[in-house]
Structures are given as structure tokens and as C-alpha cells.
Amino acid sequence: MKILLTGAAGFIGSHLTEHLLSMGHTVIGYDNFDNQYDPVRKHINIHFLTTHPNFTFIQNDIRDQASLTDVLRQYRCDTVVHLAARTGVRDSVREPALCIDVNVNGTLSLLEAMRLTKVRRLVMASSSSVYGNSSAVPFREDDDANLPLSPYAMSKRSAELLAHTYHHLHGFDVACLRFFTVYGPRQRPEMAISRFTEKMYGGQPITIYGDGSTSRNYTYIYDTIMGISRSINHLKGFDLLNIGGSGAVKLSELVGIIEQAVGRKAVIDWQPNQPGDVTLTSADLHRANNRIGYLPSVQIEEGISRFVSWYRQTVLCS
Ligand SMILES: NC(=O)c1ccc[n+]([C@@H]2O[C@H](COP(=O)([O-])OP(=O)(O)OC[C@H]3O[C@@H](n4cnc5c(N)ncnc54)[C@H](O)[C@@H]3O)[C@@H](O)[C@H]2O)c1
Known about the structure:
By secondary structure, this protein is of the alpha/beta class.
């Protein structure tokens, strides 16, 4: 396949690029090195891939529809994986307009470029945040997702709805993948596991919002990549799929698992809950298993241990 991959220089995008190239696909990576976190990290994420004969990288913004149209046409892409986004709930509360512009208008720009070039296969990143504080646990894809708690969640749900519209009007095959807190090597530096690891190694206090009882379904990057890859291969019609890890983990337990891997005790700075944060994410994976044979395989202790080894070798030693 010839795949246009937006957000290719990011955490998930760089792992996906590596995987798709290893499967023999041609990848056109598209990313604007947005400065939400240090762009140098993104250059490092993909630097080692830039000499691969089947990889082309284009630095540009997904809101530039003409550029996306040219790229789809010039490289004769048949499939799009859309990961580019302004990520993060808390950043979206601080900068709602930018989040909605990139995540909603940027997605619209991509859908229009696809329509104009007759590329009709799309796998795109959504998020567990669309479920808000759903009372039904675990979260199922047919649950209502109409009460977002942050601009980020709203933007992700809006992008799903836009994609459905293009499926209906223009016959696109679409899979919207609802990722549940993804972690592993190259994880975004502002995410909890990265921050906690950095602070523990630096002997600094870690900030915990709330009382540590909030729970998250954490997904190791390998499982997320398997979910995306399987979706690409099974793409048909319109689907919403939870791509989660094997179970929910309390924040206090997560800290214990990281302490164990780092070999240091955390000093905790307790702070009140943050607006927009949800108290629990929990994934029902039956649909993803039935439709694409998805099952996560990496347990949290193993995943954290791999992440901390990578952190020690790569970030601490650089
Ligand atoms: N990491 C998670 O836990 C998680 C959870 C749920 C959903 N997601 C979704 O998965 C996708 C990838 O997330 P990630 O964790 O790899 O984030 P990331 O920030 O590392 O990657 C996103 C990439 O998009 C690029 N980008 C941002 N704005 C752009 C624009 N206007 N034009 C072109 N490129 C742009 C950034 O430069 C970055 O490289 C995102 O859509 C995110 O919302 C991630």
C-alpha cells in the first residue's frame, strides 16, 4: 500500500512509520513539527527512518488542503492514516481554539483532499476521552459519547462525526480508533508516565492531581500499533473501535509500578483534580476483537519496565 501518514513524527506516528515500512508499505509522512512539545524530539523520532527508500517526509500543516491534495495525487496514495492533532486534555482547556482548529478543521481539510483525489480509505486516531465520565463501565463503542468534558474530547468526537459524514456521502471506508492512554518509548514528555519517570530519576517531587484513585486503561505502544495495522488490513464501511490495554490501573498503583522499575521512591506533591480530567477510562474490547482480531498482549508491569529501560538508555544518557 501507499500510505499517507499524518502526524508521522510524533510518538505513535514514528512507531507506526517504522512498522509499516517493515511490512513493505510505502509511507508518505506528513507533519508540521508542531511546538506543543519540543520539536527536536520529533526530529529524533524519525531521523533514522529518513534514509529508508520507501519513506518520504513532508513538513507541512494538515490545514493546508492544497498541499494535502498535491501529496495524495503526486504519490498516488491509496490509504490515509490520520494521527496529526493537538493532543492533551489540559492543553486544550488552555488553548481551545487552536485545538479545535487543528483537530476539526485539519480533519476536514484532509477529508476534502481525499474526496478531490478519490482516496477513500481512512484510519484515524480518536480517543477514549470522547466517553467523558460515562457511567457505563467498561466503555463500549455504542455508548453515548455526546457529553465531552474538554475541547480535546469535543474535537475528537467532532472528527469522528465528520468522518462518518464522508463515509455516508462519498463512500469512504473509515475506522475511527479510540486510543486509551498510550505509553512506551518516545511517549510525549507531558504525559504522566514520562513525567513521573523523569522526576523520579531527577529526585524531584511528582505532582498527582486528585487522591490517586483515578484509573486509566494504559495501552503499550506495541499493542496500539497492532490495532492500527489490523484496522488498515480490515478497513471496510464505517467503524468505531476501542484500542485499549488489558485493564484499568489506579494512579497510585501506576506510581508503585514506576517506582519499582526506576528503583526509587517517589516524593508526591498532592494537588486538586484538574478541570477536564476524567476519573476513569476502561475499554470494552469485544468489538475490536470481533472485527479485526485485536487483543492487547503487554501487561502494565512489562510495558513500564520496557519504557523505563528505554528512558534510561536514551533520555538519561543523551
Ligand atoms: N498518546 C495517547 O495516549 C493518545 C490517546 C488517545 C488519542 N491519541 C491520538 O493519537 C494521535 C497521535 O498522538 P501522539 O501521542 O503520537 O501525539 P504526538 O503529539 O506525539 O503526535 C502528533 C503529531 O501531529 C503533529 N501535528 C500537530 N499539529 C499538526 C498540524 N497542524 N499539521 C501537521 N501535523 C501536526 C505533531 O507535530 C506531532 O508530531 C493524536 O491524534 C492523538 O489525539 C493519543
